[in-house]
Every structure is written in structure tokens, then in C-alpha cells.
Amino acid sequence: MLERKFPEGFLWGASTSAYQCEGAALEDGKMLSQQDVESSQYAKRTGFADASVTSDHYHRYKEDIRLFKELGMKSYRFSIAWSRIIPDGDGEINEKGVAYYRALIDECIANGIEPIVTLYHYDLPMALVEKYDGWISRQSVKDFERYARFVIETFKYKVKYWLTINEQSIIVQFWDRKNIVRDELKGNDQLRFQMNHHMNLAHAIACKLVHELVPGGKVGAALGYSPIYAASCKPQDAIAAMNAHDLKNSFYLDIYFKGHYNKAAFRYLEKNGLAPVIENGDMDIIRAGESDFLALNYYNSEAAKACPDDVARSWAGYNLTGKKGDMSGYETHPGFYQICKNPELDTTDWDWAIDPDGMEYILRDLYTRYNKPLMITENGLGAYDTLTEDGRVHDDARIDYIKKHLRAMYRAIDAGVEVISYNPWSAIDLLSTSNGYKKRYGLIYVDRTDDDVKELKRYPKDSYYWYQKVIATNGASIWED
Ligand code: BG6
């Protein structure tokens, strides 16, 4: 039998984002980002950790990259914090912040690790929120362009793969957690889509900049993506699933790859007073910013069913307790769709459906629709982890999760889909956006809790050693039991 390996040069790696792992929130000239502020408010409400120290990657990146090298990582996907580079968002460049990312990128390269750089992962400089409500204002696009141009120009000979904006769809969904939104504006759902329109412009501008400035550079967005299945065989549920797919997925993808808004989704927004204001020339900017690939953050699938006209609109909920079944609610769009639990699938303790087959489904479906190479920039199991007395973490459930997703990814590759990389979430334990340090994703354990930062010592988990073999065999070992 043929050995079932991944393509030559496949970029095995892992992922992080700046505010979730760096810490040093106010060090070396950095000013607050909106996530520093948001996490500190959230910490007060929930008891989870804030973003001030997190996993201290800022000071320990060399130790971390040494562990990444031993793991065999070929790529490392991380983000740059705008508020380290231009602390107030639109003023002076902070040379110390630039020096940090230069050192981080050089350390990756010196260790044979390809840097995959995200320009924006939720952490707008707080000063821009205070000045003009952040992404709500069109001025954010201009300021982003200046920041992106500087970063791309600075690292153009070192970084080939660029990700523009992380998870626009999730930013729309959870807009007042991924942004700081004034109380007076919170009920105005149109602003979610206005912000998103500004991000579409920012994304397109960054794509164009990479193509203009980076020799051989490749660029795309990183989208939080779930396939949406019909809750039943009823045709009405199939149409609801299509509606949900249009509003939650195609609404972003059609912009990235076709340069226009998905019609059905846009009509729904117009009918409900939610559509963004589009100025003359905007769609030309969007069309000029071509993506080379799509980066996918895939954790779970969703199910949808028909929704009556006479219910209230609502957005996705949270599970704050880590007890299955405590999800606070599901998204509802009257007359369009409602998201519901899929009884066919088990979930994590935080109610995220576990669906390895969904990985094959999205890769094949997206490749058929857009015919562009795909990257996996996040995928992983959020779980409780325990450090045992022998200094190990026996995270069998995470190994099982990653193994099954990799097998599904292989099936998609075998069916002809072009997949460039796999960068699971997360390289090291870091601050979860919703559940602090209770919910962990890392291949490497970071010894701290929400209440006590301890010494932040690193311990490779069992999944680290398992993944090390996967990389060493270019994927062949995923078929062992
Ligand atoms: C993705 C984000 O949505 O999911 C990450 O890009 C995030 O920033 C990850 O950490 C997991 O979500 P959570 O809420 O469990 O941290």
C-alpha cells in the first residue's frame, strides 16, 4: 500500500496571537490595546486572568522557539501587536517594539521555522478606540494602512506568508468582546457590519501592499470557519443552513475571492437595516486586493434550522463555566435561520461540537468554490489539563482530536485539495479569549493559573511528543493507533 504522507514541504507548525501569549502589556513603549482593556474588564467580571502577563512569550520567546525547534516545527504563526509598533495607533514608531518582532522573526528563521505573520488579531491600539471608536470609524482603515505598510516594508525580506485580519466573522458575532464598544452604541447592530466593511477595505489594502512590496509574498485572511449542516432533511432546514452559510461564511469569502458581497446575505442585512454604508470606490479597493490563499481557523461545525419571523434577533452565546450544557444561547435571525445543537456530535466541556469530518467537508467545499490553496491556522481542543507529578500532561483527548482532524485533512488532500500548512492552536498554553487559563489548547503546558502566575515554567505535553513524530514522519504516523 502507498504510504499516506502529506505533500513535500508541508508547513507543519503551531499558532499563537500577541495579546494572548506575550504579556509585557506596557513594556518597552507598548501602550494598551483594546484587548488589554477588554481582558481586564472581563477578568473583573469572570475571575479569569487578564492580558498583562499571560504566558510571558515576550521575555521567553527564545526558550519557546527552542522547544518549537525540538518539536520539529516548520512554521510558526503569530501576530504582531499594532500597539507595540505604533503605540497610540497613528503616531510615532516604537523602535523597541520593532526590535522585538525583528528578533522573534530572526530567531524563527535561524531555527528553520517559517514565520507566518498575522497583522491584526483583535488588538487595536486603545488610543484609536478613545479617539474615534476604533473600526467603527473609516479613519481606522487609513491608520491600519500606515501600520500595515510599515510592518510589511520592514519585514518584507524575512516574511513570505502574511495573514491580514484574524476572524472577521467572529469579530462581527462577538463584536463587544473583540472590540471595546461604548454602551450607547452596543444596541446598534448595523455597526457590526460597518466595522466589518472597514476591515474588508483594510484586508484588501494589506493584500495589495504585500503584492507590491514583498518579493514572492503570499497573503490572505484568517477566517474563523464552521460548516453549517441542516438540522434535518426538511427542505426548510436546508434553506436555513444555506442562509446561515451565506451570512456567516460566504459573506466574507465572496469579498476575499470574488470582490463582492454575497447577495442573499446582503439582502437580509438591507431588509433589517443592518447593511453597511459603502462609499464610492470602496468596491474597487476591495477588488484590487486579491488573496492568494485562505487561512482557516477550524474548531467545530454548527447546525441550523428554519427560524420563525416573530422571534427576536440574537447572537452567539458563551459557556463560561466549562460544564457541558451551560452555553448561554444560540444565534437567531428571524425568518432566516437559527443555530442549534447538533445531536449527532459530542462537544468539548465548553459546548463546541467536535467534528473531525467537518475538516474534510470545509476543505473540499472551499476548494471547489474558490479553487485557492488553503492553510489551517488554528485547530485544537480547549480542555482542562493537569500537570502530573512527573512533570507531564497526559492530554490523550487532545491527541485524539488532532489525529482525527489530520486524518480528515489528509482525505481532503487525497481528494485533490491544495493544503499548504497545519498550525494548530496553540503552540503554548495561552489566555483563552473566553475562558482564561482554565481552558487550555497548548502543545506545551505553561505553569500558571488565572489567579497565580507562578514561574510560568514550560512542560511539553504528551500531545507535543505525539505531534513531534507526526512532523518527523511528514504525517505518516497519524495512521498508527
Ligand atoms: C479563535 C481565535 O477564535 O479561537 C483565538 O482566533 C482563540 O484567538 C481561539 O483563542 C479559541 O477560542 P477561545 O475562546 O477558546 O480562546
Q: How would you portray this structure in words?
A:
Helix content is 41%, strand content 13%. The protein has helices at residues 18-21, 34-46, 57-71, 82-85, 95-110, 126-132, 139-155, 168-173, 175-178, 190-213, 235-258, 263-271, 282-288, 356-370, 396-414, 462-472, and strands at 11-15, 75-79, 114-120, 161-166, 218-224, 228-230, 294-297, 302-305, 332-333, 337-340, 374-378, 419-422, 444-446, 458-460. The mean pLDDT is 97. With 481 residues, it is an alpha/beta fold. The longest helix is centred in the middle third of the chain and has 24 residues, at 190-213. It has a single domain (11-300, 354-479), classed as TIM Barrel. Strands 1-2-3-4-5-7-11-12 form an 8-stranded parallel beta barrel. Strands 6-8-10-9 form a 4-stranded mixed beta sheet. Strands 13-14 form a two-stranded antiparallel ribbon. The two termini are 17 Å apart. Bound molecules: 6-O-phosphono-beta-D-glucopyranose. Residues 17, 20, 166-167, 170, 224, 297, 378, 382, 425, 432-435, 439 line the site of 6-O-phosphono-beta-D-glucopyranose. 6-O-phosphono-beta-D-glucopyranose (BG6) binds at residues 17, 20, 166-167, 170, 224, 297, 378, 382, 425, 432-435, 439.
- What would you call the shape? globular
Portion in helices: 40-55%
- By helix and strand content, what is the structural category? alpha/beta
CATH architecture: Alpha-Beta Barrel
Count of helical segments?
Answer: 16
- Kindly provide the name of the CATH class: Alpha Beta
- Return residue spans where pLDDT drops below 50 for at least 5 consecutive residues: none
CATH superfamily: Glycosidases
Bound molecules: 6-O-phosphono-beta-D-glucopyranose
What is the string of helix and strand elements?
A: EHHHEHHEHHEHHHEEHHHEEEEHEHEEEH
Q: Tell me the fraction of residues in β-strands, as a range.
A: 5-15%
Using the CA coordinates, give the radius of gyration. 21 Å
Count of extended strands: 14
The number of domains is 1
Terminal-residue CA separation = 17 Å
